[in-house]
Design a protein that fits this description.
- The protein is α/β, with parallel strands linked by helices.
- It has 2 domains: 335 residues, Alpha/Beta hydrolase fold, catalytic domain (Rossmann fold, 3-Layer(aba) Sandwich); 101 residues, no CATH class.
- Helices cover 35% and strands 17% of the residues.
- It has 18 helices and 14 strands.
- The strands form 2 sheets. Strands 1, 2, 3, 4, 5, 6, 9, 10, 11, 12, 13 and 14 form a 12-stranded mixed beta sheet that branches. Strands 7-8 form a two-stranded antiparallel sheet.
- A hairpin with a 2-residue loop joins β7 and β8.
- α4 crosses α5.
- The protein is globular, with a radius of gyration of 23 Å.
């Protein structure tokens, strides 16, 4: 699947669409102070004091920026240093949540959920402004950059392979969670893990990893990745793609007038047709007559805004990649974006963005370093190495390869084949079907753990209807603890200003309820 496996670059190079840009607000920030290292291999941590304005009044908080060592437990040898930024509200009450968040990629820094979504300061086209909706109002926040993203680095080149695979990634993230909580003595705070895209898989797997070791996790927040641990047939996934495509066709006014006139009624009709007619047809296409095939293809085309000739008359499907590139009849300038079908691919990068990020980390947060911030891309469209700040590489020397290009999916033996299949047709479902049951296992180990699944209607790789069916298929003891929300947004749902407000409100409410339910 291209969005996670090859060209998430499209999303990360995109303009910051949908952001209402107020006047840039000069930060109120104290002079940095230093938390000294505790032992060999530790590094100093920079602390600054800040204030932002919210609807409820001034919000005063402490920012911590630094790198924690990833040590081998048996020997204490440091194999990597992981960069993080944490925001902590002073004089917090009891049971204040602690949310540790990351992006996906799989090798992309947390800069997007950090500076466009959850954090107290938000990047806009003109620079950083206060984020009055920040989740910091109700939860302390920690943003985690995986090894070889952000300022995170391996300590020796020979250690790199242990971090560039899924099992190693999960073990590293879990160790960071443990080490951060121990370093700052916050084990008593209710712990929430939040991930976006591939970060959803990391979140689910880390949740299980910690639960197996007796470390209580209050909740998992799964953004734009669904409930990643339930196996369903490909016919199910192919059928459940249709409602999102209908919504896209409605957005572009590509449907017949009778369907276009009442979008809500059309969506209801399409969902019913998918369940009653389309999915059963996909399960046994060889049993259909030619007339039945033609009828299915014609109806699918009518509901998704494409021509019947673009649909495979044998399999009765149009895969995701073909839908994105063919929706406007192959017009290269109008290929639907892989992160939001309401936009087009290859959007220009926002001028000055890299400098804003650099100044924020180095000046506003006081983390003065000459390391390059490798936060922009794990993959790029032409498989070249790219980064927010590309530092030195030996010249002459071997071709520089991003960590994403070195990545290995090894969560199961079938993962590599599933990845190859997804690269062909753009269907992440191939990988869904080989993932272990992380989430179910974590929830069974932690009987009070809650899960929030957040999805975007215009995300071509996640289906609200698919996830509704999956959650409904769970045993009641699990499904009753899952909250599912579908937003009128894309994969990076926080780039839609109105939906960002809704999502943040829902996150705060979810965490508060989970904490309240967890009390004895």
């Amino acid at each position: 699947m291209r969005i996670w496996f090859v060209t998430l670059a499209t999303a990360l190079a995109a303009t910051l669409t949908g952001l209402a840009v107020p006047n840039v607000v000069k930060a109120q920030v104290s002079a940095p102070r230093i938390i000294a290292p505790l032992m060999s291999g530790d590094e100093p941590i920079v602390v600054t004091e800040h204030t932002i304005q919210t609807a409820e009044g001034p919000l005063e908080y402490e920012a911590r920026a630094g790198r924690l060592p990833i040590r081998v437990d048996e020997t204490g040898e440091v194999h990597a240093h992981v960069f993080f930024v944490a925001y902590v509200v002073k004089n917090r009450g009891q049971n204040r949540p602690l949310t540790i968040a990351w992006n996906g990629g799989p090798t992309i820094s947390s800069i997007y959920v950090h500076t466009e979504f959850l954090g107290p300061r938000r990047i806009t086209k003109s620079g950083f402004v206060d984020n009055p909706l920040t989740l910091l109002k109700t939860s302390d926040l920690v943003f985690y950059d995986p090894v070889e993203t952000g300022f995170s680095r391996v300590d020796k080149p020979q250690f790199a392979p242990e971090f560039f695979n899924m099992k190693g990634d999960v073990a590293t993230a879990a160790e960071f969670v443990r080490a951060y909580r121990a370093r700052f003595d916050v084990q008593a705070q209710p712990l929430f893990l939040l991930g976006e895209s591939y970060g959803v898989w990391r979140t689910a797997a880390v949740g299980e990893f910690l639960a197996q070791r007796g470390m209580n996790v209050a909740g998992l927040i799964l953004v734009s990745g669904g409930f990643p641990s339930v196996k369903m047939p490909m016919t199910f996934w192919n059928a459940m793609n249709v409602p999102n495509r209908t919504a896209t066709a409605l957005y572009y006014k590509r449907l017949a007038p009778a369907l276009q006139s009442d979008p809500q009624a059309t969506m209801t009709t399409v969902k019913a047709w998918v369940v009653s007619t389309y999915q059963p047809a996909l399960e046994h296409p060889d049993r259909l007559s030619e007339a039945q095939r033609e009828a299915i293809v014609g109806q699918l085309a009518a509901y998704t805004g494409v021509r019947p000739g673009q649909i495979d008359h044998r399999s009765l499907i149009m895969n995701t990649q073909d839908f994105l590139t063919g929706f406007f009849n192959g017009d290269k300038a109008r290929e639907l974006a892989e992160v939001d079908t309401r936009t087009f691919d290859e959007e220009p990068k926002t001028p000055g963005r890299d400098l804003y990020v650099s100044r924020y980390l180095r000046q506003e947060l006081g983390f003065a370093t000459d390391l390059g911030y490798a936060g922009e891309l794990g993959y790029s469209t032409n498989l070249e190495y790219r980064a927010l700040e590309a530092g030195y590489a030996p010249t002459p020397g071997p071709e520089r390869r991003s960590s994403g290009m070195q990545w290995v999916y090894n969560q199961t033996d079938a993962a590599a084949a599933a990845q190859r299949a997804g690269l062909v047709d753009g269907e992440v479902a191939h990988m869904f079907n080989v993932n272990p049951p992380w989430t179910q296992s974590a929830m069974m180990l932690e009987p009070r753990m809650k899960v929030l699944v957040a999805l975007g209607r215009y995300d071509p790789t996640n289906s609200c209807e698919a996830q509704q069916s999956i959650v409904a298929s769970l045993p009641p003891a699990l499904s009753s603890r899952v909250t599912l929300r579908c937003y009128e947004a894309g994969h990076m749902m926080y780039r839609d200003a109105s939906e960002r407000s809704r999502v943040l409100t829902d996150l705060a409410r979810f965490e508060a309820q989970a904490v309240d339910d967890d009390r004895p």
